[in-house]
Automatic annotation (TrEMBL):
InterPro entries: AAA+_ATPase, ABC_transp_ATP-bind, ABC_transporter-like_ATP-bd, ABC_transporter-like_CS, Oligopep_ABC_C, P-loop_NTPase. Residues 4-254 form the ABC transporter domain. It holds the Pfam family oligo_HPY. This is Peptide ABC transporter substrate-binding protein. PANTHER family: D,D-DIPEPTIDE TRANSPORT ATP-BINDING PROTEIN DDPF-RELATED (PTHR43776:SF7), TRANSPORT ATP-BINDING PROTEIN (PTHR43776). It comes from Caryophanon latum. Belongs to the ABC transporter superfamily. It comes from the Bacteria. CDD domains: ABC_NikE_OppD_transporters. GO terms for biological process: peptide transport; transmembrane transport.
Amino acid sequence: MSFMQINDLKVHYPIRGGFFNTVVDNVYAVDGISMEFERGKAYGLVGESGCGKSTTGKSIIGLEKISSGEIIYEGENVTNKRRDRRSSYNREIQMIFQDSHSSLNPRKRVKEILQEPIRNFLSLTPAEEEKKISELLAIVGMPEDAKLKYPHEFSGGQKQRLGIARAIATNPKLIIADEPVSALDLSVQAQVLNFMKDIQNEYGLSYLFISHDLGVVKHMCDHISIMYRGRFVESGSKEDIYKNPQHIYTKRLLSAIPDVNPIGRAERKRTRIEVEKHYQAEHKHYFDENGRVYDLVPVAGSNGHLVAAKAKGAF
Ligand SMILES: Nc1ncnc2c1ncn2[C@@H]1O[C@H](COP(=O)(O)OP(=O)(O)OP(=O)(O)O)[C@@H](O)[C@H]1O
């Protein structure tokens, strides 16, 4: 049973131009997506840069204006209440960002950074607040004396842990994690991901896990949507997406990561040959099975030869 539903969400940014600075077009950053979140489950949102992943996350939490669509939380339409301090939605949906360095106020000590959500949302006595901050630091594996330090005194992985501590301070149900490890060294990425899994299990947290990295999403998520130009081209359980991808864009995303590539070599080759044939026949476009059109451009292989035709934007 899902506790939150996103229905036909659209976020369009107007493009202004001309002498009168009128709206001449729109960027269809998010263009009609629907999702459901279940307790204790992680929902993965994958796609290449610019497809609308961050805009989706930010609009859910209320950092971006929604053009149309609705968010239903615990049976209530909260679309216009997302930033309302009094609403439980505002307390129970939190976000962590890729760049924890810039999302943590450099002029505040850790104690003050963690105090902020606690004071905004929980009514605690000073003693309870102090205890809560110590508990949060313990949960994210940071020492007690971190309280008095500033963000710059920590490593990238530690700063991301502090970002997580801040997000879990209000006992959230859903954490939107926007590329939470992509700015970290590879060695630290696994630690932070494992830690996120641990707290998910312990507190029954749900995640909206945003990433361009299908390997990371495979590790973290139960349900996955593949996003392309503001829309979902494919959604399904982790098993469906990795074992039996349907859309050519998903297949290409998967084939770009050999480690987790579930489609056999033969199929990978077939997809590539199919597109290459179109290119060699001097077609400028390739139409996939859903009628979507891609521009074809050449790409050079590591040996310097033309190895495949590439569908621009998709491949
Ligand atoms: N404030 C804005 N005004 C106009 N266009 C915007 C604005 N914010 C984002 N966009 C555009 O909306 C589209 C989606 O951007 P978004 O940042 O959501 O993509 P993304 O998938 O998260 O990319 P990345 O992985 O690089 O962060 C892009 O074309 C982007 O240029």
